[in-house]
């Protein structure tokens, strides 16, 4: 039994469990759900608390006034995101692995440089070029014993995803095949943290005190819903667009948030069955994150920090 192990043995046991959970994030089949269902664990709840767009609706079905209303509402949402400015979130997470039900708890911080301030002097690193217009983020989570459980860096279309305890490191950019990112929520996190209202508007409806959008963001289609109480729900479906290949669904991710900013968020990933609960404990806006947080960790010289 775990209770009979010495403290070092229990820590090792927890790290092994954490490894499987984090490998789920990295798309390792051994930890993935055998039969991932549409939308994952939150799909039914999303449909229940926020109305689903009308079946078969399309941009062509919108009248001019509805189209203008949808575009204006999207512009308002983007201004809210951009106006939040550079900030740091202190968070607590619980990740549940679907096959065993095992839960990994972690704490950490997320540094965010929204797109609108990416070229601001406050977001510059001494001696380096300004950040990409798409924005940047850095998320570091600490697991059992204070060890680094996960380290995600993203700047523009580049990313670095690391699980140091497993010597696991994945890097990519705009040229990385979408299929290679299956099970890895990098695109989703960039979309959600940096520009959650981004994408080309395909359809809009105002129903039951809820704004319902359908957006296209590259090879992903997003069903975004926001009600007047501030509750936010989104389903992001990613499709394979390899040239000459049959179009197929790669993944479907769902997020339900109490609101924009520092609020509690739940995330589910269909390809792995992973369920994540994020509790935002604090948000710091008065002081911008250290610019070094947004520098590629592999480019930092020893002693530069991160």
SSE diagram, text form:
Blueprint: H1 7-25, H2 43-49, H3 64-83, E1 87-96, E2 103-113, E3 136-142, E4 148-155, E5 158-163, E6 168-172, H4 186-194, E7 200-207, E8 210-217, E9 220-227, E10 232-239, E11 249-257, E12 265-269, E13 274-284
Antiparallel strand pairs: 1-2, 1-13, 2-3, 3-4, 4-5, 5-6, 7-8, 8-9, 9-10, 10-11, 11-12, 12-13
Helix segment count? 4
**Separation of the first and last Cα atoms:** 39 Å
What coarse outline follows from CA principal-axis ratios? globular
pLDDT < 50 runs, ≥5 residues: 1-13, 26-37, 55-60, 118-130
Provide the spatial order of strands within the biggest beta sheet: 6-5-4-3-2-1-13-12-11-10-9-8-7
Compute the gyration radius: what is it?
Answer: 20 Å
Number of strands: 13
Strand portion, in percent? 25-35%
The largest sheet, given as strand count, sense and whether it forms a barrel, is:
13 strands, antiparallel
Q: Which range best describes the helical content: under 10%, 10-25%, 25-40%, 40-55%, 55-70% or over 70%?
A: 10-25%
Overall pLDDT metric: 75
Structural class per helix/strand content?
Answer: alpha+beta
Secondary-structure element pattern, one letter each: HHHEEEEEEHEEEEEEE
The gist of it:
This protein has about 300 residues and is α+β, with helices and mostly antiparallel strands. The chain has four helices and 13 strands. The chain has a 13-stranded antiparallel sheet.
